[in-house]
Write a structure and sequence with these properties.
293 residues
Length: 293
């Protein structure tokens, strides 16, 4: 299992998982492009959002994995499309917003679910039949639609008289991007099924799908903790230093005597902090730190 975890982490790192996940939002350039453009720009944004949305793509990959007949593919894709179209259009038009970190965390759970279902996890480990897959795909489509809606509502679309047209254009773009992704996935899976490696490797592939979903889940929960509990989980180094000092700990590697003074050789805090000194960074400087700090 340790080998599988190492392979999964290495694979996701080379796939650029953090970069793709970050690109899944609405960049400032895209925001300005939408303000300056019309419905066609929203269509392009919808298509781009789908083909760069790793969580959506992983879920669709899981749905497509064992489907070989076109009628089956059409049935499940239609259920998923209907679900995300309802919430994308409805939630955006009505201005219903949900924290996008939490929505994306739930979407990551749908990826884990599909991988678990693909390895027959319900029967093997829970001693129960799998829930109705068609209903599950439709329900998960509703959740994915909320994720799409929260991203679209990062744009000031409600300030524009062409609200409904923009929403519909974005949705059409999402569907076009989904079709393109399905064509590529279907072709690759079809070629893979013709090789001897498909059957023995299918279980491992779906374990990797669950691992990727878990990584996405942790990333979204990490983002939620920083955005919702900013005081407890500060993002930049200066905030981390302040938080530790308020707890009496000082910066990492920084120690105090019982009376609060510094031992010999330990520099004082910066201006405006206990002990004075000039060795700390300026108050308005921001230094990015690794997520694990």
């Amino acid at each position: 299992m340790a080998i599988i975890q190492r392979v999964a982490l290495t694979t996701c790192m080379y796939m650029g998982l953090p970069a793709v996940a970050a690109a899944h939002g609405i960049s400032e350039e895209a925001r300005q492009l939408m303000l300056d453009g019309g419905n066609f720009q929203y269509l392009l944004l919808g298509a781009q959002h789908m083909v760069t949305g790793l969580d959506h793509l992983l879920f669709l990959f899981g749905v497509m994995f064992f489907l070989t007949r076109f009628s089956s593919i059409l049935k499940f894709v239609t259920a998923f499309t209907l679900g995300h179209t309802i919430t994308l259009i409805g939630a955006t038009y009505l201005g219903i917003t949900v924290d996008y970190f939490l929505v994306d965390a739930i979407i990551a759970l749908t990826v884990i679910y599909k991988g678990f279902e693909n390895v027959d996890g319900f029967r093997r480990y829970l001693n129960m039949a799998s829930p109705n897959l068609l209903f599950a795909v439709f329900a998960f489509g509703l959740i994915h639609g909320f994720g799409l809606s929260t991203r679209l509502q990062q744009l000031p679309i409600h300030e524009d008289s062409g609200l409904l047209g923009h929403i519909l254009s974005f949705n059409v773009g999402v569907e076009l991007g989904q079709i393109a992704a399905l064509v590529v996935m279907g072709g690759l899976l079809s070629l893979w099924r013709q090789t001897r490696s498909f059957e023995p490797a299918s279980g491992f592939a779906n374990v990797m799908l669950m691992v990727a979903g878990t990584l996405l889940l942790l990333m979204q929960l990490h983002g939620y903790s920083h955005s919702t509990y900013a005081e407890e989980f500060p993002i930049n180094r200066d905030d981390h230093v302040h938080a530790r000092e308020e707890q009496g700990a000082g910066p990492p590697g920084h120690t105090h005597n019982p009376d609060g003074s510094h031992p010999p050789g330990v520099p004082d805090h910066g201006p405006g902090r206990a002990g004075g000194g000039t060795d700390a960074p300026d108050e308005d400087s921001t230094v990015t730190v690794p997520d694990h700090i």
